[in-house]
Amino acid sequence: xxxxxxxxxxxxxxxxxxxxxxxxxxxxxxxxxxxxxxxxxxxxxxxxxxxxxxxxxxxxxxxxxxxxxxxxxxxxxxxxxxxxxxxxxxxxxxxxxxxxxx
Length: 102
What we know:
It is found in: Mitochondrion. With 102 residues, the chain is mainly α.
């Protein structure tokens, strides 16, 4: 009995380990680091020196353009009620205007 050729070659050794390649006890993880620590009472304390912060540089004069042009103006809903788009009567009125009567 001979092992398969894929296991003998160098190609297999260069692949990443998966949970199917090794015995139990192998924990792959997600690559995300801890942001704090667990307390003895079941809470979690965030350690702000471990939190990742990203600083965006000044993009004035940057040659690449965004996905959405800056010429697009913001649109806001025009609702007469206090609840806005969550108002049930407003929802039913819009549904009837778009889909017809019952």
